[in-house]
Amino acid sequence: MATSLRERKKAKTRRTIQEQALRLFAERGYEATTVEQIAEASEISPSTFFRYFPTKEDVVVQDDYDPLLIAEIVRQPAGLSPLPAVRAAFRAAFHELSPEELEQTLFRAKLSLSVPAVRVRTAEGLFTTIDGLAQAVAERSGADQDSPAVRTFVGAVMGAMLPAIFSWVEQDGAKPLPDLVDEALGYLEAGLPI
Fold first, then answer.
1. 59 near 15, Cβ under 8 Å?
2. Which key words are in the record (predicted)?
């Protein structure tokens, strides 16, 4: 969380850029919207846009959810084994999001699945998410974050989550994402019964 006035102003500018970009993408389409148009709508210069988002794709892909999730994983009671701790952390992290944030996340997910350039950046971002989850799980367990056990565990969690996200997008958010993710992690926790 931004604490100093400068950090709060930067966070507000970043949020404004992203909100204006998503609004323009919804109105005009991703490909038809330029960085210059986003900058103008955000009342900044194009060079300022690039100080906050290295590429147009990043305005869709970047968010603050990974740090929130990682903090929630670390915060879970020490007695919880890794998978119940991750499930509880996801529930707690989703609880922090407003309905508007979830709606924005759905729109961003739709763009991530439908726009090839955004899809590539999303896939690249998954490595950062995997590293963050591995670090949090390792911190809780005392294991090395690069160990095969931690990496396999995080891979299984991500493998369960991705189809939940795909279903959420395909169903246009009909079933809440937190429920879909919890259900998917529940299958994983139960040993993947079919």
1. no
2. DNA-binding, Transcription, Transcription regulation
